[in-house]
Design goal:
Blueprint lengths: L1 E3 H11 L4 E4 L6 H4 L8 E4 L3 H15 L3 E5 L3 H4 L2 H10 L3 E7 L15 H5 L5 E4 L6 H13 L5 E7 H5 L1 E3 L19 H13 L3 E5 L1 H5 L3 H11 L3 E3 L14 E3 L7 H9 L2 E5 L5 H4 L10 E6 L13 E4 L2 H17 L11 H13 L14 H12 L4 E4 L3 H9 L8 E2 L10 H12 L5 E6 H7 L3 H6 L5 E6 L4 H10 L16 H8 L3 E4 L5 H9 L6 E6 L23 H23 L1
Parallel strand pairs: 2-3, 2-4, 4-5, 5-7, 6-7, 9-10, 9-12, 10-11, 12-13, 13-14, 15-16, 15-17, 17-18, 18-20, 19-20
Antiparallel strand pairs: 1-8
């Protein structure tokens, strides 16, 4: 049976089990949009190509499946760059299909031509320019497999317009032959045993749980492993929920704006059991002062991450779900033989110490009973309204940190955000993609800042058009909040270009323009009643404008470039530290003059 290359694209996606594609048509990709009318999947029409890639990311985050987007050539393809880089940093499986000018025009600076494979090579796991229609099925099949296997990531397939129009004999082969691509799945048996021996000898071990555990769907294995060995667990920004926050072994989130106990746990530990984490600078602070007394076990599916930032004592390359299964089987075998006791570390005193830190250093919130609404209060109320069943998606900035801190997550994939790249504008489209993935029975709440929201709120139109009922919550403080916080703390409160008028635009009028319900919370005493009204609406998108205290800052905070030992819990501590440093600097200058 002869079909066009464009039809081969559609049939390939169907064979791969794709149920939704996010995209935007245009000249070079137009041949693919004709057979899409009969395709066996849904298409969500975005309003900007960046929205397509972020929707695909949100879909992948929420489901664990590959998110797919399709756009045309030139500027449409380059509009994917931010999302591809975002997915690459956070290990999100995404397949991007782009149109390209005809093969005869490539290199001639034709209308809407861009070297998309060249541009995206550093920010994709793999990409390919397809030269013949016969190659389409194989290219898409391989791309899909590469995106989801090993360390997940974004893959791009660029298809010229004449290739889409060419006629070919359709053939689909399930076999994948990629001799140069062999991700290591099982950990080395010797290293697995060495890891357990090192854990057994530790006095203050802690599991440093990263987003790789979420990508590997290894929450159950992590829980079993931590409980068997009674190991405290810190969960990074990308790993939130992989062990429920209410679990007795959960210590909290580490990092620049982590929970105090989570930061201290990593500083005081004598053994880091690092699972799917990459020693990111936002976690480590000053790297040479991070976890100074700790030996390191590092398990990761990507061998390039092991030893990249921190010397490792026991390296294990492998899939987290598989490696944790190997560790658990060794423990089971030892237990059957009556030899388990020597492998169990005595962590009781260490766990008691961390429990004291959690109790003595809670997140601080000074909320008046009436009047001004604190952003933390708004986020806690959002959680109290939609609860554990919901998926929460954030943008980037202060609201992201407050949402990471103040919502108790209960499962991997419940918390979706842009971690590594820190992409403003992520929340609105990613929440739409996540909602498509999880279905109508699971609430999806986008928690966004007023700065982030204005970068991509046009995608609300896609949510309305395609009947995707996301709850959009805007934490509206009238500023680029995190930038303002840094200018206040690091630049002597010299505020430069951070003011965003709260009524520009008026979010209630914006909601009305999109034909959706809009609510505004001005005072804390109105919070519960308004959220109850929003909660009752489940059949269409909802927009809620939370007018919050513009002066609130995110704490705890580790100053940029400082050691995690310098974690500060309040702004008052920050200013006291700054004054002491300034005094010491003046004293030193005076001694130099003498």
């Amino acid at each position: 049976m002869k079909i066009t290359g464009a039809q081969a694209v559609m049939k390939s996606l169907e064979m791969l089990g794709v149920d939704t594609v996010f995209g935007y048509p245009g000249g070079a990709i137009l041949p693919a949009y004709d057979p899409m009318i009969e395709a066996g999947f849904e298409h969500v029409l975005v309003r900007h190509e960046q929205g397509a890639i972020h929707m695909a990311e949100g879909y992948a985050h929420a489901t664990g499946r590959v998110g797919v987007c399709i756009v045309t050539s030139g500027p449409a393809a380059t509009n994917l760059v931010t999302g591809l880089a975002d997915a690459n940093m956070d290990s999100i499986p995404v397949l991007a299909i782009t149109g390209q000018v005809a093969t005869t025009a490539i290199g001639s600076d034709a209308f809407q031509e861009a070297d998309v494979t060249g541009i995206t090579m550093p920010i994709t796991k793999h990409n390919e320019l397809v030269h013949t229609a016969e190659r389409i099925a194989g290219a898409l099949k391989e791309a899909y497999y590469i995106a989801k296997s090993g360390r997940p990531g974004p893959v791009l397939v660029d298809i010229p317009k004449d290739v889409l129009n060419d006629l070919i004999e359709w053939h689909w082969d399930e076999h994948i032959d990629l001799p140069g691509y062999r991700p290591t799945i099982r950990g080395h048996g010797k290293m697995v045993k060495e890891a357990l021996d090192l854990i057994a000898s530790a006095k203050r071990p802690v599991i440093y749980a990263g987003g790789g555990l979420v990508r590997a769907d290894a929450g159950e294995e992590l829980r079993d492993f931590a409980e068997r060995l009674q190991l405290p667990v810190v969960t990074t920004l990308m790993g939130r929920g992989i062990l429920p926050d209410r679990h007795e072994l959960t210590v909290g989130m580490p990092g620049m704006h982590g929970h105090y106990a989570g930061v201290k746990a990593l500083q005081e530990t004598d053994l880091l059991v690092t699972l799917g984490a990459r020693f990111d600078d936002r976690v480590t602070g000053r790297l040479d002062a991070f976890a100074p007394l700790a030996k390191v076990i590092h398990v990761d599916v990507d061998p390039a991450e092991i030893g990249k930032n921190r010397e490792v004592d026991v390296p294990i390359v492998g899939d987290l779900k598989v490696v944790l299964g190997q560790l658990l089987r060794v423990l089971d075998d030892k237990e059957e033989k009556g030899l388990l006791e020597p492998l169990l570390p005595d962590t009781k005193a260490w766990r008691n110490h961390l429990d004291e830190l959690k109790r003595d250093h809670p997140l601080l919130l000074d909320q008046p009973e009436t009047g001004v609404l604190k952003p933390q209060t708004a986020i806690r109320a959002i959680y109290d309204t939609w609860g554990d069943d919901a998926v929460y998606v954030s943008g980037v900035g202060q609201h992201q940190m407050w949402a990471a801190q103040h919502i108790p997550y209960s499962r991997g994939g419940q918390w979706i955000n842009s971690g590594g790249l820190g992409t403003m504008g992520f929340a609105v489209p990613a929440a739409i993609g996540a909602k498509v993935g999880v279905g109508r029975d699971v609430p999806v709440v986008a928690i966004d800042g007023d700065g982030c929201f204005q970068m991509t709120f046009q995608e609300i139109a896609a949510a309305v058009q395609h009947d995707i009922p996301v709850i959009f919550c805007v934490i509206n403080n009238g500023f680029l909040g995190m930038v303002r916080q840094w200018q206040s703390l690091f630049y002597e409160d010299r505020l430069s270009q951070v003011r965003l008028p709260q009524d520009c635009p008026d979010l209630l009028k914006l909601a009305d323009a999109y034909g959706i319900p809009g609510f505004r919370v001005m005072h804390v005493e109105d919070l519960d009643a308004i959220l109850a009204k929003a909660y009752a609406i489940t059949d269409q998108p909802v927009l809620i404008d939370f007018r919050v205290d513009p002066d609130e800052m995110v704490f705890p905070m580790v100053p940029s470039g400082a050691s995690n030992d310098d974690v500060l819990e309040t702004a008052e501590q920050w200013y006291a530290r700054a004054a002491a440093l300034a005094a010491a600097k003046l004293a030193a200058a005076g001694e130099d003059q003498l």
